[in-house]
Structure formats: structure tokens, C-alpha cells
């Protein structure tokens, strides 16, 4: 449907084109996700793998709403380092889930365009749900590690410089730093891959 294509275009601009989020793109993304979740409940939208991925993409913006709630709580009841860290990590989770799911949609579009019959056994609702759950699980594990690192950092590195707690602090800090570096590199790769996929699709559909 045209509305779903417009929603995907909005999300690609928000997460894979803009260098950073802003109030306008965030508000439009939230409104688009709310409308899409309502639209996907309609009987006019068939239950296909792409619809499952788009539904999961729209649900990811719930994390943005929760982050805004945290920010309001910070302003109303005073700044809490734990709440501030949680708000940032919720936004990180939303961005990572959205980027990966958008790339999954792009890859599925590539399969539909170039390998329609060969890829049909793979493009099932069940597989789409498994992919969505796997993405959410991996990002949740990533964000849990970030939360632990933030908590240990707030406690002070000097207080945990010796013994098992000190070793845990060092391991979590190293793992969190590695994940942040990998997520940055992965974000660049996803942008390149998405541009390549849609470049191929566009020119394959252009009149020769």
C-alpha cells in the first residue's frame, strides 16, 4: 500500500539518511508509527512477511515514547543519572532495532525483485517473526550491557578497581566500548547496503 511505502520512506530518512535525530523527524516518526500500527490491523492489509517486519518497526517507536516519559520525569522530579542513562539507552535501542529492520525490509524487496520464486520459501510470516524476535533479543542484550556499564561507571571505577568486581567492571567497559564501535561501523555498512539495494531495484524497474 502507498501509505506503508510512505512510512518506510520516512523511516529510511529518519534513521539511514539524517546524521542525527531532531524534534521534527522524531514527531513525524511517532505519528507515522501510530498510524501504521492502526493501519496494519485493517483487513485490507494482508498478513505477509513484509507486514510483520513493518509492524515490528512501528512498535520500536514505543521506546522513543518511553524515553520521552523518562525525560519528563527527569524535569519534574530532578535529574537522576540512572533515569538519564535509561532514556539514552532506550533511544539507542530504538535506532538499532529500526536500522536493522529497515535493512531486512530492503533485503526482502531485493529478493522479491530478483529472486521471487527461489526466495518464496524463505519469505514467510514465521521467518519474519523469528527475525524480528532475534533483532529485539540482540538489541535488548546490547542495551542491558550498556546499562550495566553505566551503573558501574556511576559507582566509580576506583571503588571497583580490585577483586572480582573490578574485573567485572573492566570486562563490561571493554565489551560496551567494543559494541559501540561495532554499532557505528555496522550503521555505516547498513547505509551502504541499503543504497546499493535500492539502486539495483530502481534501475531494474526503469524502462530500458
From TrEMBL:
One of its GO terms (biological process) is positive regulation of Rho protein signal transduction. GO terms for molecular function: G protein-coupled receptor activity. SUPFAM superfamilies: Family A G protein-coupled receptor-like. The keyword Oxidoreductase does not apply. It is found in: Membrane. It is a multi-pass membrane protein. Keywords: G-protein coupled receptor, Glycoprotein, Membrane, Receptor, Transducer, Transmembrane, Transmembrane helix. InterPro entries: GPCR_Rhodpsn_7TM (IPR017452). Residues 32-208 form the G-protein coupled receptors family 1 profile domain. Its main location: membrane. One of its GO terms (cellular component) is plasma membrane. The chain crosses the membrane at residues 12-40, 52-74, 86-110, 168-199. PANTHER family: G-PROTEIN COUPLED RECEPTOR, GENE 5127-RELATED. This is LPAR6 protein. It comes from Orthonyx spaldingii (Chowchilla).
Amino acid at each position: 500500500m502507498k501509505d506503508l511505502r510512505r512510512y518506510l520512506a520516512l523511516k529510511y530518512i529518519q534513521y539511514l539518511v539524517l546524521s542525527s535525530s531532531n524534534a521534527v523527524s522524531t514527531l513525524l516518526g511517532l505519528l507515522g508509527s501510530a498510524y501504521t500500527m492502526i493501519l496494519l490491523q485493517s483487513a485490507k492489509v494482508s498478513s505477509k512477511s513484509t507486514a510483520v517486519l513493518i509492524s515490528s518497526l512501528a512498535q520500536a517507536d514505543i521506546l522513543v515514547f518511553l524515553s520521552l516519559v523518562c525525560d519528563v520525569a527527569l524535569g519534574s522530579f530532578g535529574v537522576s543519572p540512572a533515569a538519564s542513562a535509561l532514556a539514552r539507552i532506550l533511544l539507542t535501542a530504538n535506532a538499532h532495532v529500526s536500522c536493522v529492520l529497515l535493512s531486512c525490509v530492503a533485503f526482502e524487496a531485493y529478493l522479491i525483485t530478483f529472486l521471487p520464486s527461489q526466495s518464496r520459501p524463505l519469505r514467510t510470516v514465521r521467518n519474519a517473526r523469528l527475525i524480528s524476535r532475534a533483532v529485539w533479543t540482540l538489541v535488548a542484550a546490547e542495551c542491558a550491557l550498556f546499562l550495566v556499564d553505566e551503573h558501574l561507571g556511576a559507582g566509580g571505577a576506583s571503588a571497583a578497581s580490585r577483586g572480582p568486581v573490578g574485573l567485572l567492571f573492566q570486562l563490561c567497559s571493554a565489551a560496551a566500548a567494543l559494541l559501540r564501535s561495532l554499532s557505528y561501523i555496522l550503521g555505516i555498512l547498513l547505509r551502504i547496503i541499503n543504497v546499493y539495494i535500492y539502486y539495483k531495484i530502481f534501475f531494474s524497474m526503469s524502462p530500458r
